[in-house]
Amino acid sequence: MMEDGSPIDASDRPGPMIRTCLMPAEHWEIRDTWHTFGLQGTGSHHVALTDVFVPDENFFEFPFGASFAPDPVFGKYPEIVVLSHGALAVGIAEGAIMDLVELAGAGVKQLFMTTPLVETERFKEGLARLDAELMAARALLEAQITRVWKNPERSTAKDMARVAEQLQAVVWITSACVHVAEGCFDLAGSRAVYESSSLQRRVRDLRVAAQHFAAQPRNYVTAGAAVLARLS
Fold this sequence. Notes:
Layout: E1 2-3, E2 6-7, E3 19-21, E4 29-31, E5 46-48, E6 59-61, H1 72-75, H2 77-105, H3 121-150, H4 164-188, H5 198-209, H6 219-231
Antiparallel strand pairs: 1-2, 3-6, 4-5
């Protein structure tokens, strides 16, 4: 939130005040700004409201304010927003594994090799390691989803500690999924470098996903403080 060209400080935490508003689509201008290295298909452009009055009842604090809907899902909005990034990463990594298996199943042979890729020990061992890492990431995501879903309380705290455990999980999940996709890219060999390869796209998509604030390693600082508070 800005006033006279300067950010307004938040009243309950360090940093500027950030609020979210709901308004009919006819008032929004979509600005074509999403030209990116990865996740190009999300269309995450900037949007703008110009000379539009937004009534107080259309605002809610982002992301820790009072819910704008009585539904229990929206009551856990911060947790859902964070965990959704883990679900995205797991889904892309799953796609990378499937792309690699499909490529190998086509009987591909790498240069100067007489044995099909799928029959080599390096491929089988590498695939197993990557699949195990993906299973671990998926299991952690599902455990966090279950924990949030079963918790009947609708938290009202407005600090990042509220979602510290989810942030901790999503940073690790995303990092693991980046490693899975890059491992698939490596095992695929030169076939993966072409623009037509979905593997190179999945690597780019996960690299961009890992830059999101919810998946940034700096969130381990918040999570570490929460761990200290829990174990001390």
